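New to this. Please check this protein:
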Amino acid sequence: MKRKQIAALALSFVLTTGAAVLGTYSYFTAKDTTKNNISVGLGDVKIEKGDGTWQYKSDSADIKEMDLTKDLKAFNLRPGDKFEKVMTVKYTGSLTSNIKITKPADKNDIPFTLTIKGQNGVSVDPEGENIWILKNVAPNTDISFIATFEVPTSVKAGDINDNNKTLNLQEYLMLDITATQANNPGWGE
């Protein structure tokens, strides 16, 4: 009987050990990390304006004290006298941009007119409101306008009085220019 007990004990040890060995699995694991160098920079939206020189476009010898630089100074004008200059807006930003250019309303009750017309691909404002919207303007693009200041031939003696025969506009706002990146969803035209 001792033998039977030893055999039973041995069999039970072998079965227990075998079950333990067969029931245990080994999982292999490994760990690593990745590292990258990140170097980023933001683009920008920039505009520069270039003021040309006024040029006299009529033929009067009566004008006195004419000084034609980026500012206009001329006296003793007559109906039909006209001056022009090219104004350039250069988009120098690095991002594609939308640009809105607005000519403010003319001063009331003056016998002079200032007109602005786009050139070099800038179309005339279709609604006649002196607002130009340019979309998807690439970096280093020049946008040109011709400004014309004139005494219309339709001016009559009754249109002129002591208050409006001399026009002295210091820092006269000719164009208001706003640029934004092309994908700005909050930009209202």
